[in-house]
Automatic annotation (TrEMBL):
Descriptive protein name: Sulfatase N-terminal domain-containing protein
PROSITE patterns, per database record: SULFATASE_1 (PS00523)
Keyword Membrane: no
Assigned protein family: Belongs to the sulfatase family.
Keywords (A to Z) from UniProt: Calcium, Glycoprotein, Hydrolase, Metal-binding, Signal
UniProt-annotated stretches for the region Disordered: 487-512
Domain Sulfatase N-terminal: 37-317
SUPFAM superfamilies associated with the record: Alkaline phosphatase-like
Entry keyword Glycoprotein: yes
A molecular function (GO) term: sulfuric ester hydrolase activity
Cofactor(s) the protein requires to work: Ca(2+)
InterPro entries with a match to the protein in the record: Alkaline_phosphatase_core_sf (IPR017850), ARSB (IPR047115), Sulfatase_CS (IPR024607), Sulfatase_N (IPR000917)
């Protein structure tokens, strides 16, 4: 099951004092992590929404993800972000994960507006040998459509960082740059040890994190942090930083509860990756640029993944009103000025195959159908070895993400802290869940009847209000039906045996 991404909370920071926008178009560096913290439940639909500004229900991407040997992808009649930016003069490069289809050459990123691609096509792979297991096995690392056979042993995060640095250093500053850096981190890799990172990164947390999997996962996140820092440093060294918009986000919620053998954590939010709970759809992101008129602030306004395309197109000097059939909104003024809310609702998804849907309108969220695969609980991190009883406590559970902004060095860091620890300097978001009722685990059974939650006062989805507000339930069900009337059929196709890499040299590549 799947949904589009919801970025309800958006960190914003400006690392230098704001000044008038330069005459040339701004460079855009869009960094997306994989399975980090809590955002959207699953991958391909989120990436399709980023690229098109359209809901997956309108592109046929609303069910699951694209498998390695499934002969479909983001439809070719959809215009993606790189194609929109090309007429504005942008040089366009993608590094890392694609996952929007590759069964035919026409679906490759270099056929869809990007001038170069170094990375992989499938949903996940090994961090060191770069083989992808997706029903079949095969090597999945390519440069501009050509498989790279000599990269065994190279750590993916390091490879993609070096590629991004090279693109920045070799870029002609007189032309605007669009760099889409889609990291593999921190998605699980292959095999019995899916958490993979050089030991030096794990050693950073020796004596600090006792749980082995969480220690390795922290190393993976640390490598990702270093990557972002190095890209920012490259932008600064080349003089591009002062005219650059940097976006950092992630494609879906954390795979906690041993999902994919991973060790992420969405605590104290409910649920995991691939669910409609807030742990699957509530997201955080960061935007950094001198072009922001207001600095170092946190916004809790609605921001949906479909909004990135019109927002960045506007920031690039384009007119979003000329972009047809968008579901996203131009949020640039809201972000630039710390303005008032633009959106009033977010459709999470309608999945006609797995039979579920979810929507938020104003303060109320409605979920109905099979919205999860029994990952309905609240999963504290192992370091909270003796937390209040996760099922029975009535304590107030808090979680904060602290955004620290160093205006002198332009370094940005985000740290996570649990209740009882000092937030230190900077600003912090605290998720206050309120008292947890004894029946929190059983008062909502969405596959039997719709559930209604008031998210501002109940972000952890403890209290099902459907019985108290039946009119509100009907209002939101009607809104879902209105969206459903515009939905196109899912584009999913069954696995094609001809896509097996064994049949064409041992690597994943187009086969039709």
């Amino acid at each position: 099951m799947v949904t589009t991404v919801l970025s309800v909370m958006l960190f914003l920071a400006c690392a230098t004092d704001a000044f008038a926008a330069p005459s040339s178009r701004p460079h855009i560096v869009f960094i997306i992590a994989d399975d980090l913290y809590y955002v959207s439940p699953i991958c391909s639909p989120t990436r399709s929404a980023i690229m098109t500004g359209r809901h997956p229900i309108h592109t046929g991407m609303q069910v699951g993800v694209i498998g390695g040997a499934t002969p479909y992808g983001l439809p070719l009649n959809e215009t993606i972000m790189a194609q929109h930016l090309e007429p504005l003069g942008y040089r366009r490069h993608i590094v890392g994960k694609w996952h929007l289809g590759f069964f035919s050459d026409a679906y490759l990123p270099t056929k869809r507006g990007f001038e170069s691609h170094f990375g992989y096509y499938t949903g996940h792979e090994d961090y060191f040998d770069h083989e992808a297991q997706d029903g079949f096995w095969g090597l999945d690392i390519h440069r501009d459509g050509v498989t790279q056979w000599d990269l065994f042993g190279n750590f993916s995060t390091e490879m993609y960082t070096q590629e991004a640095e090279n693109i920045v250093h070799n870029h002609n500053a007189s032309e605007p740059l669009f760099l889409y850096l889609a990291h593999q981190a921190v998605h699980a890799g292959n095999g019995p040890d899916p958490l993979q990172v050089p030991q030096s990164y794990v050693d950073r947390f020796s004596g600090k994190i006792n749980d082995v999997k969480r220690r390795i996962f922290a190393g993976m996140v640390s490598a990702l942090d270093d990557s972002v820092g190095r890209v920012v440093a490259a932008l600064k060294e080349t003089g591009l930083l002062e005219n650059t918009i940097i976006v950092f986000t992630t494609d879906n919620g954390g795979p906690t509860n041993n999902y994919d053998g991973n060790a992420a954590c969405n605590w104290p939010l409910r649920g995991v990756k691939n669910t409609m709970w807030e742990g699957g759809v509530r997201g955080v992101g960061l935007i950094n640029s001198p072009l922001l008129g207001s600095t170092s602030y946190i916004s809790e306004n609605f921001f949906h993944v479909t909004d990135w395309l019109p927002t960045l197109y506007r920031a690039a000097g384009g007119d979003p009103s000329t972009l047809k059939n968008l579901d996203g909104y131009d949020m640039f003024d809201m972000l630039r000025k710390n303005g008032s809310q633009v959106r009033t609702e977010v459709l999470h998804n309608i999945d006609p195959v797995n039979n579920f849907s979810a929507i938020r309108v104003g303060d109320y969220k409605l979920v109905t159908g099979h919205i999860s695969n029994n990952d309905n609980s609240w999963y504290p991190p192992p370091e909270l070895s003796s937390p209040p009883d996760a099922e029975k406590n009535n304590d107030v559970l808090k979680f904060s993400s602290e955004l620290k902004v160093n205006k002198k060095t332009t370094d940005l860091s985000v740290s996570q802290e649990s209740q009882g620890r000092s937030p230190g300097s900077g600003q912090a978001i605290v998720v206050n869940c309120g008292p947890k009722p004894l029946n929190a685990s059983v008062n909502c059974v969405p596959e039997k009847s719709p559930c209604l939650f008031h998210i501002p006062s109940d972000p952890c989805e403890y209290n099902n209000l459907a019985g108290m507000y039946p009119d509100k339930v009907q209002e939101l069900l009607k809104r879902i039906d209105q969206y459903r009337s515009t939905m196109v059929p899912p584009g999913n196709k069954p696995k094609d045996p001809k896509g097996d890499p064994f049949l064409h040299g041992g690597d994943w590549k187009p086969w039709m």
